[in-house]
Every structure is written in C-alpha cells, then in structure tokens.
Design brief:
With 574 residues, the chain is an alpha+beta fold. Helix content is 43%, strand content 21%.
Length: 574
C-alpha cells in the first residue's frame, strides 16, 4: 500500500501517492533549473497552474488519488524541460507564433483592448485584425444602433484571459513549458519597452488607464445588474419547474395507482376518459419520463444559476436520463399515432318515427331532465362519470342538439346517435350503445336532455342529433329550455326568446313568432327597386300589426327611418 501526500498546486488541493509526488517534484525542479532568472517565478506559477488543471481533469468520483501514471501523462503533454531551452536572445521577439492546428478559446483580451477587450478577443479567435472589427462596431452603433447590446452581452458572458495558459488558449497555441516561458518573457519585454518609452507615452497611457477604469466601473455595474436579474430568473425557473414537476409526478402516480387499484375514487374518470387502449400505467410512465426529465434538468439549471458551485449529477446520470427520455419520446410518438386511429371513424345509428298530428294542431316541444342526474334542464355538460339508479357506472352527457327543418311530407322526427372509433364497425357498435329516450304524447314531443352509455365504452364524442321535419304552416310551442339545444346549422330557423309562452309558425325561410312582444320581432324589411319607392308606416300596438302604404312614387330616395313609441315610420323624398 502506497503512502499518499496532500499537496496544494495552483490553488487546487490534491491527494497524490508518494512515488508520483517525488516524480512531480523532480519535474518541477528540472524546469526551474532550465529557466533563466528573469521571470522564473512567474513562469513556474503559470506552469503549476496548468499542471493543476490537467490533474483536475484526471480526477473523478471513482478516482480521488493522483497516481504515477497520471503524472506521466501530464509530463507528456507539458514536455520535458531539456526539450524547450530558450536562449535569452529569443525573448526579445515581440510577435506571437500561432499554431495553425491548435484549438482556440474565446476570451477577452483587455491588454490589447480599448474597453472590455471583446473585439480584441474576437480578433484572436477569428484570426482578424481587431481594427476591422472596431470599424464595423462603430458603423453599427452610429448607423443602426444594434452593436451596443451584443457588445455588452459578450462583455458579460466572455471571460477575461488573465493567466498565461488562458492567453495561450486565446491565440490557439499549445500550453507547453516553452510557450509559457515565451509568453511570460514577452510580457517582460513589453513592460521594459513601456518603461523606456514612458515619457513619450505618458499622456496616452494616462488616457488609456482612465478609459480602462471607466470601463471597469461600467463592467462592475452591468455585472451586478445582470447577476441580480440572473438570480431572479433562476428563482423563477426553480419555482416553475418544481411546481410543474410535482404536478407531473402526482398525475403519473394517479395513473399508476388507477391501473393497480381500480377501486380508487378517480379510477373510473381516468379510465373512462382514456382515448386509447394503452395501459394507464404505461401512459403515466411515459408522461413522467417525457415531461418530467426536461423539467428536472430545468430545475437543475435554475439551481445552478442560484448556486454556481452546485455539484453536477455526473455524466453517467445525465446520459442515463437522456437515454430514458429519448426512449420515452419515441414511444410517445408511436402511441400518439396509434391513438389518433382510435377516433378516426364516425359511426351513426338512425331512428325515424312519424308524428301523428293534425295540420291544425299545435306541436308542443319539451326537454325533460332526469332528477337522478340533474335537478334542471338548464346547462349543458360535455360528459362526466356517475352512477345510474341501479348503481352501475355510466357516462352522462348533454351533447344533445335539435335541428328544425322543413319538409313537404308529413311531419316526422329522426334521431341520430353518433360516436367515434378506430373502425367503422367499432364506431357504429359504440353508437348503438348510447341510451337515449323520447316519447310522443298526443301533440306533445318530449325529449330527454341527456344521453347515457356504459363506462367501458369510454368517452368517444358520443352525441345525439335530433332532426325535426315539419311542413310549412305547422305551429309549434317550445318550452323555455328548447332554445338551449336548438342548432340552426342546417336552416335559418331560430327562436326569438327562451320564453315558454311563444308560438311559432313554420314558414319558408324562418320561424315566425305569432305572439312575441314588439321588441322581440325582427325589424320590418321593405324592398325598394331602382325605379321606384314608397312611404310605409309600420304600427305595432295592442290592436295588432298595421302596415300603411302611401302613393306609389318614382325616382324617390329614402330620407330616413323614425322609431316612435308605438310605430316605425319610413319616409322618402324627391
């Protein structure tokens, strides 16, 4: 068993076995001996930081101790000290040699930048002179004003290149001992040149320092504002995703328990409303994975915004949840297509019966309710689940529609029961199982305002359409609830009010109310052709309806319409 040593390297703490520690120490000593005194400490700090980054990548939940093999891998990346000896004269170069195959990372270069270093960093990343980017930015800001916001966003999101390793990554150079030493010595060279020319550049440097201070202050203000906004957004995401996730979990558990325990109070509602033949436990599971997993990751995102140091669930957990989510989505699409076929066909059962009434009789129309299910005929319910008088579970619905149509034959009623299914035969069988009653008592037609079907038939848009065919001239007397179920989709027949005192006469294009109050009647319409017009007075009072026409005139125009308390006067003029 090897001894372990706890070390602090580049700001990170590591547990490293004794052999690896000794080799790493010898490696650092060799590097230190190979460096010239100028900038040795700064170079060593950068090298240690880079080694610490590489070692951190080697650690995992299963591996917490650095072994000799990890040290060998790090040395292979960084290189041997004797391979990268750099003479003093090479430190005088002021140009950076780019590695054309090295990958770059986007950083802000505040050393060469004017404000936040965003454009200088973009210049390094895309290999473009920052001058051109600055020219484009100025044009965008002063012409369309659209360059400022993207600049601020990049300023906030893109980190600054502070360490030597980050500066090398910014330019796409490999992070090796030689490149770190070059970069540090270049920095010393720039500082030396600056000191030599300080008198010539004193004013410029002062202006630049002032601009940088202002930029830094602006940066701090915007960072504070955006951090506060970020915290608010993070809190909102956490609350929204947590509440949604709890709702999805509860709904999924209800489906799971409804399948396992059919005696639960809500089991019949869920089973009756199930539009597919898919087991409820499977629907609940798919819903939990398909919707719940994205909500879970959204919840983690909100927590990460609130607590940046929050530990990740790990790659294994992420990949496992991603795999479950993909499987659930594919399964949901498959079952969704399958479910669409469950209501792809309409089935209909028709019953026709003659109305044996005399032409001079008044046909009374009434809608009745069953006081076992409801205490009034008012109000329509799409469907709900209940028990009938024999304690059987049924689906109750008020999907009832009445259509009044004109016929040249004897009066009759046609009842159409409709339902949906995955085939014509299944839809027809489901329609046959709809329970609906009506009766004719003399000259009174009594219609149920509801339908029933067994719960095992499931809700498949069961509906009852009542078509009442009446010859012209028939007088009808509807009760006050009839207008709620009347549908004039197939004709213009409509009731003026929902009063049960009104009588209507079937005419060619309308139901004419015989005793409606004056304010319920339609306005009187008088056709006027292009060659003539007339003055007409329409009077409606307790004596009835009176229409008076004055002399026939030609080439007249309508002057106006006057509405009085007891009459309507339409006048014309030359």
């Amino acid at each position: 068993m090897n001894k372990t040593v706890s070390i602090n390297l580049g700001g990170f703490s590591f547990h490293i076995d004794e052999d690896a520690y000794q080799k790493l120490s010898r490696y650092f000593d060799a590097i230190k001996r190979s460096l010239s005194p100028d900038g040795r400490d700064e170079i060593m700090n950068d090298i240690e930081s880079r080694v610490a980054e590489l070692l951190s990548e080697k650690l995992s939940n299963e591996k917490q101790v650095i072994a000799l093999s990890e040290i060998d891998q790090v040395i292979a990346v960084m290189g041997q000290p004797e391979d990268y000896r750099i003479e003093d004269e090479t430190t005088q170069t002021t140009y950076t040699t780019y590695n054309p195959t090295g990958s770059k990372k986007l950083y802000r270069d505040k050393e060469k930048g004017m404000l936040g270093g965003v454009l200088a960093g973009l210049g390094h990343y895309f290999g473009v002179d920052p001058l051109w980017l600055r020219i484009i930015m100025v044009i965008l800001v002063f012409s369309w004003g659209i360059g400022f916001i993207p600049y601020i966003i990049l300023w906030i999101l893109v980190p600054e290149a502070k360490t030597t390793s980050e500066k090398l990554e910014m330019t796409g150079q490999p992070i090796t001992i030689s490149n770190i030493e070059k970069k540090v010595k270049e920095g010393f060279g720039e500082i030396s040149d600056t000191i030599n020319n300080i008198d010539h550049k004193k004013i410029a440097d002062g202006a630049k320092d002032g601009a940088q201070k202002v930029a830094s202050s602006i940066e701090d203000v915007f960072m504070t504002i955006f951090k506060a906004i970020g915290k608010v957004i993070g809190a909102f995401i956490v609350i929204f995703s947590a509440m949604s996730l709890i709702g999805i979990i509860v709904a999924s558990l209800m489906m799971l328990f409804s399948a396992a325990l059919p005696t639960l109070p809500w089991a019949h509602e869920i089973n009756g409303g199930n539009f597919s033949e898919i087991p409820l436990w499977l629907i609940g599971t798919l819903m939990l994975f398909t919707i719940g997993i994205p909500l879970f990751f959204l919840f983690l995102l909100g927590l990460k915004i609130l607590m940046p140091n929050l530990k990740s669930i790990g790659s294994f957990g992420k990949l496992t949840l991603l795999g479950l989510w993909i499987i659930a989505v594919i399964s949901s699409i498959y079952f969704g297509v399958r479910q669409a076929t469950e209501t792809g066909y309409d089935g209909k059962v028709v019953k026709k019966e003659q109305l044996l009434i005399n032409p001079s009789d008044t046909l009374n129309i009434k809608f009745r309710f069953n006081d076992y299910f409801s205490k009034t005929a008012d109000g329509k319910t799409d469907f709900h689940f209940t028990q009938d008088s024999t304690q059987n579970e049924v689906i109750y619905s008020n999907n009832i529609e009445l259509h009044i149509l004109k016929t040249t034959e004897a009066p009759y009623i046609q009842i159409e029961r409709t339902a949906e299914g995955k085939s014509l035969s299944e839809a027809r069988k489901r329609a046959e199982k709809i329970r609906y009653n009506f009766e004719i008592q003399g000259n009174t037609l009594i219609l149920d305002n509801y339908l029933l079907t067994e719960i095992e038939n499931k809700y498949r848009n069961q509906e009852v359409q009542i078509f009442l065919y009446l010859p012209e001239g028939t007088i009808i007397h509807p009760d006050g609830n009839t207008s709620e179920y009347l549908n004039n989709h197939y004709s213009n027949y409509n009731f003026y009010t929902d009063s049960d005192q009104n009588y209507y006469k079937v005419e060619k294009d309308e139901l004419k109310c015989l005793n409606c109050p004056a304010d319920d009647e339609d306005f009187y319409e008088e056709e006027v052709d292009s060659t003539g017009s007339k003055t007409t007075t329409v009077t409606i009072n307790e004596n009835g309806l009176q229409i008076k026409e004055r002399e026939k005139v030609t080439n007249k125009t309508v002057e106006g319409v006057e509405v009085r308390e007891d009459k309507v006067i339409i006048t014309t003029k030359n």
